[in-house]
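Why do we care about 3D structure at all? Because function follows from shape, and shape follows, mostly, from sequence. That is the central idea of this module. The next example makes it concrete: a single protein chain, its amino acid sequence, and then its structure expressed as tokens.
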Amino acid sequence: MYHEIEISEKSQNLYYLFFNTGSGSVRAKQLLNLDCQALELTIGCKQVKIKFYSIMNIESRKAGYQTLREDLKFNQQISIVIGGGDGTMMWVVEQMLEFQIDINQIIIIPMPFGTGNDFSNSLGWGKSVPHDIIGYNYQTLKYFIHQWEKGYVCFFDVWDIIFKTTKDGYMLEINRTIQGYNKQVVKDRDGLNTQLFTKKMANYLSVGVDARIGYGFDKHRTQSKHINKICYCLEGLKKMFLRTKKINEVIQDLQYDYDGQLKTLFKTSNIYEINDGNVISWQPCQSILEFRIFGKMQKEIKIFKLIQKEHHFQMVCLSSMSFNSIAGMGCERLISGNAQRIAQSKGPLLLKFREEPNINLETYFQVDGQFFNVINPQSLEIRPCSQLPNGKIRVLRCQK
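And the structure:
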């Protein structure tokens, strides 16, 4: 069991703010005038310094991570504010690991600049920020810092996602351009089609129709958060009238690691979608890991790991829940009780895809809001992040 760190232990005078100007609300662009600069502000009786870096600018983010690494030599811990959407959170964590920054010394604070912002919302920081995120004489920014000073630290699970395709398989993603978009094959560092895709997951993962909706949404993504939500809803309605392969047509079974041996959790039958997430925006409890599977009647199974007790995150198990319809899943946002538990496990998990000779299998996959079209998938593995201590990061929760 892990506990929060007392405010007095984490109180500090230095913050870093890494912001993504490409996130859904694009309000982060207001910070461009502060890029690669530092502000010294008075919060109560305390002097606080905050440094700004744009992660969309290669030189800026490199300078930010290098400066951060130097500052950590003289500071026991530093809070990193990440201004962006759900996907931006893990992007920054991955970059810090590449720069060999000691994550043990980092406290992550989400600043919701994206479209969904489930990660920020689950920690109590909400799903949006004011239109003016700086304010006259930095008053809005000072308000944010004041709230951060009152927050408390807890641990949050991060997962390694390992997606494999067959030798003739590949993954496609949407690349937005000024002229529109194009589909491009995901490459490895040598510029070759990759049969092994790895990524860290903090929030959610899905295989199936939900990822297909997101893949279609990526084609029409805009710089307006509200228009993006409308586009997403329209894609969802459109996909209800298009045939999506049932999961039993592409997935063989789901297995879990039990004392080093793989055990079958269940085999697929009449299922549409699998979704896995660290954060769910509509479930009435705090979850650490969930799976969702849509079935023949758009049935859904959720597997989620719990639990929040007071300010503690305690690992328990993976529970599988089923929904009778997509409508039932949507109604869960408003009225709970649409699900039924069918299985549970502790994980790690291994999802095996079917092998059909001379037939190209096709499915859709997403992780933290990054969407892919996958041809000839082989397996999907989910396990605690090996690069992080106990597979966890430290995050700041809002003191309500």
